[in-house]
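Hi, here's the filled form for the chain we discussed.

Project: internal
Contact: R.S.
Residues: 254
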Amino acid sequence: MIEEPFSTAALWCRRLALFAIAVAALGIGLAKFGAIDPLSGLAVLAAALLLACVACLFGGAAFVVIWRKGLRGAGMALGGLCLAVLLLGFPAWLALQAIRLPVQNDVSTDLIDPPDFSRSSAVLAAREGHANGEAPNAWREVQRRTWPDLQPIVVDLDIGEAWQLVQSTVTAMRWKVIERQQPGGRQGLGRIEAIDYSLLLGFPDDITIRLRPAAGQTRIDIRSASRYGRHDFGVNAKRIQKFATELQAQLDAR
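And the returned structure, exactly as it came back:
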């Protein structure tokens, strides 16, 4: 018996999907381990996504040809489509987040007097010269509507105990601390400057934590800002929420 030939479109669908995944893994790996900067890694990932889109086109064409001519390769085309759709799933989710959430990349627990980021030479060097300015007033109004649960954290501890609590929480969060200012001075304020990196491409986000003593209590405010882009897809607000949850867990474990 003479077997029907394979669909060329199905073959290319699988090949392009596999190649797209390999390109995406290479870009993410190089950016994650510092071989290339995050923006270059994003460019490589964008190329991989483009290849995945082309693979989807070949997959659709393959099913049309297979249906009309009775060629083999339906399973191959389906496998390629599944791989391509899997790769396109994350940017699709980001697109939904961009539609659902407002444009914002700077979030703070104190909207009246947000903590200022340090501009010392050591901090600027660690942040590659990037200096975060004041949070725009328009974004503060957006945050009030979008993230009403982001509020200052008040603990029933003196400033010294709260300082130790915050440090252990930052360690548990695995943030990179670039400057510490122990509580003291006229106002008794304490401050920690840190950097957190995104999971996939290692984009840096800047964090500052301010501790302010009160009567038998300590108020903790945290501000998180993305260094790149105008839309953070809710990452900064979720980071602050995770910090508050971890701090409460550290407090309960005392």
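Let me know if anything looks off before we file it.
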